[in-house]
């Protein structure tokens, strides 16, 4: 990857003290200030104080929909597109949209990727592995439908679906509905076309296959064993039975369903992957597909014992890692996120430190740098991962590693070794996804305490800060009626585990920020992409002219 040099800003001097860029994951702004707004309910003195500097140094920005390259404004924000936007300063059509277009035009079937796997898909079995829901964050069911229908039109006769249940981007007890829906469609296609499609294996996404950033390879192992080897502690003769049983009357959230495998009457798995088969992972989002892709693609692999590594043709619906070129075969070209800010900062000699805990470390490195893993320039960048707890639902430990992240980032601020220090506090997002209100309130307070530690450190060294968020989550813990009142079913509030469509706050300040800098008032529709030029300006550089405009000005009001 090339680096580029930035020009000095005409009116803002080059910052001589560190700049903190702090992202609160899943911290949106809701118009509803009741107990179901966990951020409102939490003690958040640091963020409250920042809010008091509105409008000049605190405002709201868009974090969802077309402002971050998603197909429509009905799409909630998410961390991938959010951090892509924060790092790259440009609105780029995101994976979801690229896949939509390719399926719509049929290009997917004439592309290099399909051509590379089509013979295996026709002669053997086509396996489809991914998240079964309409969440639109990692995957979408309508795309899966088009993919299956298209494959059948392409002459594929045997498909095995390996279906992970969601409960994070959609309601936490919707897995039975989704697997029933898929089974219904499959039965219809089978009888209409005389073909053989079956749901073969699955499990909850937090337990099976969809780990990220190598937080816990055991999750991927469970998935590989179920999907590829046909081995799981639980076997059933139908997928609907599997999910229904393992949900234990909704005592188990969809995210945490144990791995399962469908077997025939003789107890033999119906969809283990065999030599000569084709496998497609149909999630368009990268982070949680990288590890399973490595397990499927890499000959050299030591993260767990694969026992059997079948000779297959494997393609991702997208390429997930642009640096590793993984998977090497993909059906739809990924969004091209070029000339992200890191390339300019490194090219201008800026020293960068990035930190979060395992669950989010790639957000401030991999996503930030346009879905590229690794360093651009090891002499100028340092990425530090604080190990996340493994195997737990984070409502059990809502503070997560916020204090540790704060401690390590504070050290970086005080060290004088870096010009830009960026970090992500995962709490409001990771605990928000559990739908547990009380725990989420605790998580928001923990993130706020982390922010306070960092703002104090910035104060101490005379630096400046930019605090923002990547999308909403914790501010909406319940589904609402049109009038905003919480929805109740059988006297219980309807829990919302997903992200939201809400805007997010951005605040700037610190002793190092020139007094004459404030937010412009002429960009009411600004979004996350506008943040990039903002921090580039704060450093004393002019942003590249194709970036979305900076939020700040030095002009007199
Ligand atoms: C996840 O992957 O955990 C959720 O689907 C989305 O959360 P994130 O976009 O905040 O990572
Ligand atoms: Co999230």
Main features:
single chain, 557 residues, alpha/beta, Alkaline Phosphatase, subunit A, 2,3-Bisphosphoglycerate-independent phosphoglycerate mutase, substrate-binding domain, 8-stranded mixed beta sheet, 7-stranded mixed beta sheet, 17 helices, 19 strands, 16% strand, binds 3-phosphoglyceric acid, binds cobalt (II) ion
Structural class category: alpha/beta
Q: Determine and state the CATH class of the largest domain.
A: Alpha Beta
For this structure, the CATH topology of the largest domain is Alkaline Phosphatase, subunit A
Mean pLDDT: 98
Count the helices. How many? Answer: 17
**Strand count:** 19
**What ligand species are in this complex?**
3-phosphoglyceric acid, cobalt (II) ion
Q: What gyration radius follows from the Cα positions, in whole Å? A: 23 Å
Q: Unreliable stretches, pLDDT < 50, 5 or more residues?
A: none
What does this structure look like?
The chain has 557 residues and is an alpha/beta fold. It has two domains: 19-93 and 337-553, 3-Layer(aba) Sandwich (Alkaline Phosphatase, subunit A); 96-332, 2,3-Bisphosphoglycerate-independent phosphoglycerate mutase, substrate-binding domain (3-Layer(aba) Sandwich), CATH 3.40.1450. Helices cover 32% and strands 16% of the residues. It has 17 helices and 19 strands. An eight-stranded mixed β-sheet has the order 6-7-5-4-3-8-9-10, with helices on both faces. Strands 2-17-14-1-13-11-12 form a seven-stranded mixed β-sheet. Strands 15-16 form a two-stranded antiparallel ribbon. A hairpin with a 2-residue loop joins strand 15 (488-489) and strand 16. Helix 3 runs parallel beside helix 17 (529-538). The protein is globular, with a radius of gyration of 23 Å. The two termini are 40 Å apart.
């Amino acid at each position: 990857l090339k680096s580029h040099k930035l020009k000095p800003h005409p009116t803002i001097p080059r910052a001589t003290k560190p700049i903190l860029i702090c992202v609160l994951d899943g911290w949106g702004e809701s118009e509803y200030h009741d107990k179901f707004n966990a951020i409102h309910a939490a003690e958040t003195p640091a963020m409250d104080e920042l809010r008091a500097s509105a409008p000049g140094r605190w405002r709201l920005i868009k974090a969802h929909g077309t402002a971050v390259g998603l197909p429509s404004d009905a799409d909630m924000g998410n961390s991938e597109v959010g951090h892509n936007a924060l790092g790259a300063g440009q609105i780029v059509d995101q994976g979801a949209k690229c896949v939509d277009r390719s399926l719509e035009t049929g290009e997917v079937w004439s592309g290099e990727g399909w051509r590379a796997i089509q013979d295996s898909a026709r002669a053997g079995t086509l396996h489809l592995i991914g998240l079964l829901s309409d969440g639109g964050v990692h995957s979408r069911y309508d795309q899966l439908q088009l993919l299956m229908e298209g494959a059948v039109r392409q002459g594929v006769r045997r498909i095995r679906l390996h279906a992970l249940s969601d409960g994070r981007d959609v309601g936490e007890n919707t897995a039975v509905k989704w697997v029933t829906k898929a089974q219904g469609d499959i039965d219809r296609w089978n009888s209409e076309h005389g073909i053989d499609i079956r749901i073969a294996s699955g499990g909850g996404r937090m337990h099976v296959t969809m780990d990220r950033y190598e937080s816990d390879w055991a999750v991927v192992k469970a998935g590989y064993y179920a999907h590829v080897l046909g081995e799981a502690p639980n076997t059933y003769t139908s997928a609907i039975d599997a999910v229904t049983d393992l949900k234990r009357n909704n005592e188990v959230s969809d995210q945490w369903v144990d791995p399962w495998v469908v077997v025939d009457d003789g107890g033999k798995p119906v969809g283990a992957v065999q030599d000569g088969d084709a496998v497609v992972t149909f999630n368009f989002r990268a982070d949680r597909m990288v590890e399973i892709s490595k397990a499927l693609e890499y000959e050299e692999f030591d993260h767990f014992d694969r026992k059997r590594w079948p000779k297959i043709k494997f393609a991702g619906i997208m390429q997930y890692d642009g640096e590793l070129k993984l998977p090497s075969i993909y059906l739809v070209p990924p969004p091209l996120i070029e000339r992200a800010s890191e390339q300019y900062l490194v090219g201008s000699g800026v020293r960068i430190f990035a930190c979060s805990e395992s669950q989010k470390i790639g957000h401030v490195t991999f996503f930030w740098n346009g879905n590229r893993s690794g360093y651009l320039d090891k002499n100028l960048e340092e990425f530090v991962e604080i190990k996340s707890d493994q195997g737990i639902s984070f409502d059990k430990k809502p503070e997560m590693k916020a204090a540790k992240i704060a401690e390590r980032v504070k050290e970086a601020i005080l060290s004088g070794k870096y010009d830009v220090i960026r970090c992500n506090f995962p709490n409001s997002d990771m605990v928000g996804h559990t739908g547990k209100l009380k725990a989420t309130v605790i998580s928001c307070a923990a993130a706020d305490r982390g922010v306070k530690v960092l703002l104090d450190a910035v104060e101490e060294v005379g630096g400046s800060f930019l605090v923002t968020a990547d999308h909403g989550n914790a501010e909406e813990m319940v589904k609402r009626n049109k009038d905003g009142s919480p929805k109740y079913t059988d006297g219980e509030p309807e829990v919302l585990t997903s992200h939201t469509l809400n805007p997010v706050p951005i605040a700037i300040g610190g002793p190092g920020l020139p007094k004459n800098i404030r937010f412009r008032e002429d960009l009411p529709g600004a979004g996350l992409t506008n943040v990039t030029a903002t921090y580039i300006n704060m450093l004393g550089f002019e942003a590249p002219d194709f970036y979305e405009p900076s939020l700040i000005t030095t002009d007199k009001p």
